[in-house]
Amino acid sequence: MLEELVERLEDVKMTIISGLCLIISFIMDGGGLIDAAWISVFISGTPIFYAAVNRLIEGRGINKISSALLMSIAMIAAIAIGDLFAAGEVAFIMALGEILEHKTTHRAKRGLERLISLTPQTGRRISNGTEETIQTDQIAVNDVLRVLPGETIPVDGVIVSGETSVDQSIMTGESMPVDKTVGEEVYCGTINRFGSVDIKATKIGADSSLQKLIRLVKDAEDKQAPMQRIADKWASYLVPAALLTAIATYFITGDIIRAVTVLVVFCPCALVLATPTAIMAAIGQAAKYGVVIKSGEALEAMGKVSVIAFDKTGTLTYGKLKVSDIISFDNNIQSDNLLKIAASAELKSEHPLGKAVVAAASDKKLTLPACDNFKMTAGKGVCSEVNQRKIYCGNENYLNDNGISINAEMKSILDELRGQGKAAILIAGDNKCLGVIALSDVIRTEAKKIVADLSGLKTKTVLLTGDNQQTAEYFAKQVGIADVRAELLPEDKADNLIKLQNNGTFVCMIGDGVNDAPALKTANVGVAMGTMGSDIAVEAADIALMTDDVSRIPYLKRLSNATRKTIVLGISLSMIINFVAIILSVNGLLTPTIGALVHNAGSCLVVMIAAMLYDRKFDDNTNVDYSGVKDSAVSQI
Q: Which of 411, 542, 619, 633 could disulfide-pair with 298, CB 3.0 to 4.6 Å?
């Protein structure tokens, strides 16, 4: 019952009533049937007193001491000498700080539930030549399972029959389906895109890759302990110091008023407000630019970040395949004609590479003849009849299987394209190779500038990707990232982040896929791409970009740096004001009521400095931020 009362008194409406009663008490100078400050003391003071007593009972050692204890002592002392306004003012400022803090740290945590929802529920088991659909918890190791095109693979396993292409972006973030054949591994939760395959189960239940992914997110979530409030950290010093100073003042001067005034001005009201108000203003500023910051802890931590790790696909690249090169091996066939031949042959293809080729022809407004007798060989290529001419589109092995060879010069070109991280489709007809079409994920135009800007902010960049080493190094070189870590599964990304954190380094992870969720949670700060990123990645992250504009990352870093500096400035000013007020109180120049007003002035100053963050401008063309109010204290930090 007492806890319910405290929760109701902490409500925003009740705090407003407390503030109004305080104003009435000040105007009427405590007159009337009852001093309105009593109401303020009850509404805002009860939760503080409850928190102080609760901490004394449940806390251990030095943790029994809190800022609430110091404020409770000050309120009791002010009430004892009849200065109700001072008691009410201290309680109200503390209540206001609590409200602001709660508003900036509220977070939604639904990502884990969505990740769990991806877990396959059934599988097709083959037993004695008979196919039966069973629940995934009935699947045993070494069971043979059939996975049809479009179905989700129910467990980790090895292909024992068939060939296909598997979309394993959920695990690795790779932009293209990966061709799989007999003897190769497949993962739970990934999607079989084309051919029907039989797999032998190797890891089931809690041992599967998807369940491991879920556990990683859970574990990382548990490790994210909330930051201890600064006022409470300093309470172990403030409470003894306040009591000793007040007692010494009383014994030296013999004036109880001076002693109580010392207790009142010692209360860290401005200190309590410095952090939440600055964070609230910065979160509002970020929201105007499409950046959603979920907690104050994330914003503060971002200000400490010195290493930013990027996922590649969908983050530094657009995550969409486009034709990058059209190379003809026949002098009589121009590039547009080669594209037309390949697109015609791929017209009925469902493979992403084939669709990208058709899209490129469509962009060039090429007229494509119909294809007949279309046939696809999963993981290798397609064959069609175009204008009564048999055309093959696929990889080198596919052409070899159909009696078409490629020479050393062609192989050299293929190797060069692969070295650039590109996928290549060989086009053949009339029993010879006619040319090659290369496709690539497109690097974001702003990616190179982002890396350069972060370098100017003394922030190191790292690439963490599931792509192969050669592809990753090519893309990293294009944008200026020197530290490349490739061929990583979700747990590998998380492990790499932990290694970066081992020496106390604060690390930020930028990602967009489900496979990035554990890394986003493991990092000190996780930033997800909101528009094109998966819901799970957005929920797992501390910060979400609500557009696919990653150029907001340097802006976010500048904003978080400025926020930390603003918090430090606010705390420093609050401590200076308190120190001056203590000196004046000891010398009898302040009364408890005036001391409370000094508190209000200091608190208002801290709030004003923090509020200026909301309209502060950040120059994207330099590494220095500036304020529109150039003479203000904030513009100098």
A: 542
